[in-house]
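pasting for the record
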Amino acid sequence: MGPPSKPQPTPQPPMTTSICTVEASQGTHLFHIAGYSLHERLGPGSFVRSAPFSVGGYDWAVRFFPDGGEGGALVLLLERLTKDVVAKASCHFRFLNQATGKASPKWQVCSMNYKARSVNKRAKVSTFRWNLLMYAQDDGLTIECAVTVVKEPKVSETKNVPVFKEPPSDLSLHLGSLFLEDDTSDVTFKVQGEVICAHKIVLAMRSPVFKAKFYGPEMEENLGCIAVEDVRPAVFKAMLHFIYTDSLPDMDAFGDVDRQEMIRHLLVAADQYEMKRLKLMCKDSLCNSLSVDSVATTLAFAEQHNLCILKDACIEFIAFSNKIDDVVASQGYAHLKRSCPSVLLEVLEKSSKFPRV
């Protein structure tokens, strides 16, 4: 008896439709700021403005306030330059590192009205400087501003449209289903006593270290059960989850402390197996989850593993924090003071240069 045939999509009966659409014009402007460090202390309310750019028949500009918010936060605004009529638009900002292709998360500004030669204060986005450290390159900063101008709505003619529902792609689902599957695995790891199965070709596809081990010129003919003693089983499984699914495992069941500890261990494993994307995702996760309770522990970790961007983010977080006493009282501070005393001098120097909120 052969395998069951795959069910075919069932065509739906035609239906009469009309659609009300809102047309929009989109455009993106890159604002390059050379000599960024010279702009950092222009003072509150001072800004630099991009050259005019056109989207949807209107001229626009980006205003960048290097010191425009509380505690030294930087501010971005969209300004409409064209005279007369009111324009309705939305936009998003993000920072780009054009050398590496790395991009920050987007800061979205919802659709609103812009009057002639004015800014809408509700269109303001702000963030701390440490959020852009990994995107600055050679003392230069690139700001991406993507603008969508909304036009008058239109209603289409009535049409008979046959609708076919095409099933979504299930490639990632099938690849992810191989994760920890014993029946088809061809390599076994013994991770601190726990046996974990995997697939050599999948691991080699995602990690240069695994590729060299399984298919390189010095590969072993009979690997047997590969012993791994320097990675915890839970961390190794989390790394495999990323290899098979290109995503971090669900850590909602973890508390904040346990989650950050897992991310730190996972970052070390990513570095060991030369998985650059996973390493970057872990660093971003640690940067975005800093708190007075965790920053000292994360700073000690960054110093010990020579993670410059993460270290700078921690130092700047402490320098701008108005809860330095809480940081000193945290459990991680004693370990930081004992293991990395020199880094405390950097924190003090940074704190003396920038006022706290």
